[in-house]
């Protein structure tokens, strides 16, 4: 007897270096297409930035809370980035999928690699995401965007730029992503997305 179970909608993983515009693009998609897309809210141990709200932008947690979740197998992926823990809980993705929406994940390259590993080790996983990389027009443009935020000191900016260089190299390698979009024009990039 055949199963009538329909798999959940495929999640979309949006990846790119810090400051490339992932958050802006995701906000536009989820605002314009509220009934079709939902955002997977990640967990982080970093402090909230001005205007960020708990359970809206991130689940802001202590290091101990995140470590308990990791040890309990509650995270699809997790990483320590820029001195803070970030992670996507399985429950967060399922919550969006259970609403019949396409789940969007905003993650970095390290997390993409973790998810690919998770899927390869869990044959029963129905995750099957679409991987999209958002690239800056240049590293110089990315630096201008990071400085324009006025949220971090020089050391943090230099750290993010060093990581961005390796992320862009990985993102542009053939086969690592289903598509690469260059965010040199927000409107055009949004339409391509």
Automatic annotation (TrEMBL):
GO cellular component, as recorded: cytosol
List the lineage, top down: Eukaryota, Sar, Stramenopiles, Ochrophyta, Bacillariophyta
Which NCBIfam families does the record match to this protein? guanyl_kin
This entry's Gene Ontology molecular function terms read: ATP binding; GMP kinase activity
Which keywords has UniProt assigned to this entry?
ATP-binding, Kinase, Nucleotide-binding, Transferase
Entry EC no(s): 2.7.4.8
Family indicated by similarity: Belongs to the guanylate kinase family.
Q: Does the keyword Kinase apply?
A: yes
Q: What is this protein called?
A: guanylate kinase
Q: Where do the Guanylate kinase-like domain residues begin and end?
A: 9-193
What's the superkingdom here? Eukaryota
Q: Which residues form a coiled coil?
A: none
- Organism (species): Thalassiosira pseudonana (Marine diatom)
Q: Which Pfam families match?
A: Guanylate_kin (PF00625)
């Amino acid at each position: 007897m055949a199963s009538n179970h329909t798999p959940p909608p495929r999640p979309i993983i949006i990846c790119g270096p810090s400051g490339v515009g992932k958050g802006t693009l995701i906000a536009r998609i989820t605002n314009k297409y509220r009934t079709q897309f939902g955002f997977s809210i990640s967990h982080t141990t970093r402090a909230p930035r001005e205007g960020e709200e708990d359970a809206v932008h991130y689940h802001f947690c202590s290091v101990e809370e995140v470590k308990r979740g990791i040890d309990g197998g509650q995270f699809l992926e997790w990483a320590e980035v820029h001195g803070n823990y970030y992670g996507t809980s399985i429950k967060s993705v399922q919550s969006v999928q259970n609403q019949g929406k396409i789940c969007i994940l905003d993650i970095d390259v390290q997390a993409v690699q973790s998810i690919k590993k998770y899927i390869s080790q869990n044959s029963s996983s129905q995750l099957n995401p679409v991987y999209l990389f958002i690239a800056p027009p240049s590293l110089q443009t990315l630096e201008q965007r990071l400085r324009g935020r006025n949220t971090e000191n020089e050391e943090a900016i230099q750290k993010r730029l060093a990581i961005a260089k390796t992320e862009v190299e990985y993102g542009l390698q053939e086969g690592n992503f289903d598509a690469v979009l260059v965010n040199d024009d927000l409107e055009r990039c949004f339409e391509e997305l």
